[in-house]
Design brief:
Elements lengths: L8 H27 L10 H20 L3 E7 L2 E7 L10 E7 L8 E4 L1 E4 L2 E5 L6 E10 L2 E11 L6
Antiparallel strand pairs: 1-2, 2-6, 3-4, 3-7, 5-6, 7-8
Length: 160
């Protein structure tokens, strides 16, 4: 009759290797998800930004509930922003400012005051480098902010 050898060094090697294989697989999976998802924003003071977040989120929800919406169009160096009421009629707006920001880093950020070319239509000429951007649109009537929205996009969405 042959005796059982029990837990040997080979068993320990296999158990340790399996454990580290699982740890490495999980880390690689999480790194892939992290690098392909939201990359965050650059702010001057993270503590202040965190304290202001809830107030800004509530104000954005209230503006979104108003039904006013804007649409951004890019074609070459032509930038157009159309803003309309809930029913589709052009919104009565005096001025629109667009702030283009890179999701990470601020060395390419820029701001544009658009010229009014018609009711609810604003345009500017400025080259926008390829890649991911967050554009913040601030629309005002009589000096008061009517719509403040931010959208993330990739210039390939506009065929650039």
């Amino acid at each position: 009759m042959k005796a059982s050898r029990g837990f040997t060094g080979w068993h320990m090697l296999l158990a340790t290797s399996a454990f580290f294989a699982v740890v490495i697989a999980v880390n690689v999976t999480m790194a892939v998800y992290a690098s392909s998802s939201w990359s965050g924003l650059v702010v001057e003071n993270t503590y202040v930004a965190s304290q202001e977040f809830n107030g800004k989120a509530a104000a954005m929800k209230a503006m979104a509930a108003s039904g006013i919406e804007g649409a951004l169009f890019l074609k070459g160096s032509e930038i157009r922003y159309d803003i309309h009421e809930q029913g589709g009629a052009p919104a009565i707006i005096d001025e629109v400012t667009l702030n283009f920001k890179r999701p990470v880093g601020d060395h390419e950020d820029f701001s544009l005051a658009l010229r009014k070319t018609g009711e609810g239509r604003f345009e500017a000429d400025h080259e926008v480098a390829g890649g991911d951007w967050i554009v913040e649109a601030i629309s005002r009537r009589n000096g008061m902010v009517v719509m403040h929205e931010a959208k993330r996009f990739d210039t390939t969405e506009f065929g650039q």
